[in-house]
């Protein structure tokens, strides 16, 4: 792609490159609100730590690969490095070492609010440090300032056949088309040095996170509200408050729910479909827009992010067929009928987790606090009682407990966001926080293009016979 001088991003011009080097040399205090400066100071230390670790342990074995693992979706193979979060099968996710209840307690909240601000979680994911309120406020402001969409994206979104195109399809296409704005792609075309890749990946990631709620809200308005305008971004408000307002909701409680929702859906270590896809595509040095769009296409699958839509379809159908106040026995019959029909029970099971997902638990606690009498919440609670023993009885389901998707739809319904096929878009907005924080570190650590070895069954047969 030829670049004209006017297209060269400002930070890449000679004098600006020096500014990047200056950032690298600047002394930054722990209280600084300059996130990029903080990262620039951390990256060389982390590079050194990993270099020394690899020098000492580069040849140390951390696991083995069996034939079953290869045919079984690579379950249990330790083959990826992801710094932002680690998933324990029993305890659930820890973001940089912090569990969900710890994040709810420790991360800064909006004035008068109880739930953590996703901006704070992003800071934690990308730096490993719990931010101050001032640092979180600075991110809210920065994202609001970066939120504007280029006109061709607005035109594109407004020309989609929104009534018949799934919101996730619109979302993915718009994110791909946003790569016209990629500073990394431009920097790469300019021959930027590998050591500085992270810097334009960071810029793209911040731009993309800032723009996602605007893209998502436009899709919502076009798909379900006859293209009603989304209004203007307010730079004094946080990311979630601007998002709910653009969606057309003015309930403070719904905005609190969205802060919690956008925090807990952000990251689930590196091997899940969306995170792994972003990491893989990014390893080919595709820019963050292309990499994230690829991950969004994976999130759109019913065994991954689309399950939150599927859960509500499942519950609504059950209610329609069996009415209100369904006895447990009838719920069980319905579940068994679903399994017999060859379908999965959406929102239940997990490839890694072996207990109730703490992301489910914190949504349940939110419901107990704010909507304890809601009939759909009661049904969700009843399903929580009935489904696990039924799945255990199948003898094959490794985790009979609910995952994050088993609860979210009911909360969104309660506050009036009833359009189920929109739910995965919200998941996608949140997932950007984790996977893009990881992408910045992938490039900062100079991780190479990903290329595991595959084998044919014939080769495997030979390899096992040789043993
Ligand atoms: N309902 C019915 N059957 C289920 C099941 C469920 N909720 N969960 C697992 N099983 C079945 C599997 O389909 C598999 O059956 P086969 O051997 O006949 O193919 C068997 O139990 C063993 O599967 P597993 O090892 O327990 O689970 P996997 O790691 O293969 O799959 C997951 C994990 C999430 C895809 C699966 O549990 C599932 O399909 N759940 C429902 C969909 C869902 O909620 N997805 C969202 C997950 C969270 C997220 O990524 O957002």
From TrEMBL:
GO biological process: carbohydrate metabolic process; citrate metabolic process; tricarboxylic acid cycle
Catalytic activity: oxaloacetate + acetyl-CoA + H2O = citrate + CoA + H(+)
PROSITE patterns found in the cross-reference section: CITRATE_SYNTHASE
Active site: 304, 350, 405
GO molecular-function terms, A-Z: citrate synthase activity
Transmembrane segments: none
Main subcellular location of this protein, as a coarse class: mitochondrion
The UniProt record lists the keyword Transferase: yes
Keywords: Transferase, Tricarboxylic acid cycle
Pathway noted in the entry: Carbohydrate metabolism; tricarboxylic acid cycle; isocitrate from oxaloacetate: step 1/2
A Pfam family reported for this protein in Swiss-Prot or TrEMBL: Citrate_synt
Compartments, as annotated in UniProt: Mitochondrion matrix
GO cellular component, one term: mitochondrial matrix
Signal sequence extent: none
UniProt record similarity statement: Belongs to the citrate synthase family.
Subunit structure comment from the entry: Homodimer.
Protein name as annotated: Citrate synthase
């Amino acid at each position: 792609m030829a670049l004209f001088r006017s297209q060269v991003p400002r930070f890449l011009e000679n004098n600006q490159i020096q500014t990047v080097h200056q950032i690298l040399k600047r002394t930054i205090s722990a209280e600084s609100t300059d996130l990029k400066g903080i990262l620039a100071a951390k990256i060389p230390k982390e590079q050194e730590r990993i270099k020394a670790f690899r020098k000492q342990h580069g040849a140390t074995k951390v696991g083995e690969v069996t034939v079953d693992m290869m045919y079984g979706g690579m379950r249990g193979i330790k083959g990826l490095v992801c710094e932002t979060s680690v998933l324990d099968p029993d305890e659930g996710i820890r973001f940089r070492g912090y569990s969900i209840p710890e994040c709810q307690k420790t991360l800064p909240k909006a004035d008068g609010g109880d739930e953590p601000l996703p901006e704070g979680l992003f800071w934690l994911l990308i730096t490993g440090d719990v931010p101050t309120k001032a640092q979180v406020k600075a991110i809210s402001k920065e994202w609001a300032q970066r939120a504007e969409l280029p006109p061709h994206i607005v035109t594109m979104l407004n020309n989609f056949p929104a009534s018949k195109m799934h919101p996730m399809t619109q979302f993915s296409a718009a994110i791909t088309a946003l790569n016209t704005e990629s500073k990394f792609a431009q920097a790469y075309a300019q021959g930027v040095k590998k050591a500085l890749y992270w810097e334009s990946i960071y810029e793209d990631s911040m731009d993309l996170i800032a723009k996602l709620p605007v893209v998502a809200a436009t899709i919502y308005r076009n798909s379900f509200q006859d293209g009603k305008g989304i209004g203007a971004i307010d730079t004094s408000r946080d990311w979630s408050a601007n998002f709910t307002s653009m969606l057309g909701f003015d309930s403070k409680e719904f905005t609190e729910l969205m802060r919690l929702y956008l925090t807990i859906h952000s990251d689930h270590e590196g091997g899940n479909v969306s995170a792994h896809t972003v990491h893989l595509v990014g390893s080919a040095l595709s820019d963050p827009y292309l990499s994230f769009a690829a991950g969004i296409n994976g999130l759109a699958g019913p065994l991954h992010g689309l399950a939150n839509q599927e859960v509500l379809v499942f519950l609504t159908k059950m209610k329609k067929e069996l009415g209100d106040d369904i006895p447990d026995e009838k719920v069980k019959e319905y579940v068994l009928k679903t399994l017999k029909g060859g379908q999965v029970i959406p929102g239940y099971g997990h490839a890694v987790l072996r207990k109730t997902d703490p992301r489910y638990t914190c949504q349940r606690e939110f419901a107990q606090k704010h909507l304890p009498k809601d009939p759909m919440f009661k049904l969700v609670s009843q399903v929580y009682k009935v489904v696990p023993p039924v799945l255990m009885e199948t003898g094959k389901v490794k985790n009979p407990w609910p995952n994050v998707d088993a609860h979210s739809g009911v909360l969104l319904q309660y506050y009036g966001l009833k359009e189920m096929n929109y739910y995965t878009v919200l998941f996608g907005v949140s997932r950007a926080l984790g996977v893009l924080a990881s992408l910045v570190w992938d490039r900062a650590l100079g991780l190479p293009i990903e290329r595991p070895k595959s084998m044919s069954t014939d080769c495997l047969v030979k390899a096992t016979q040789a043993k």
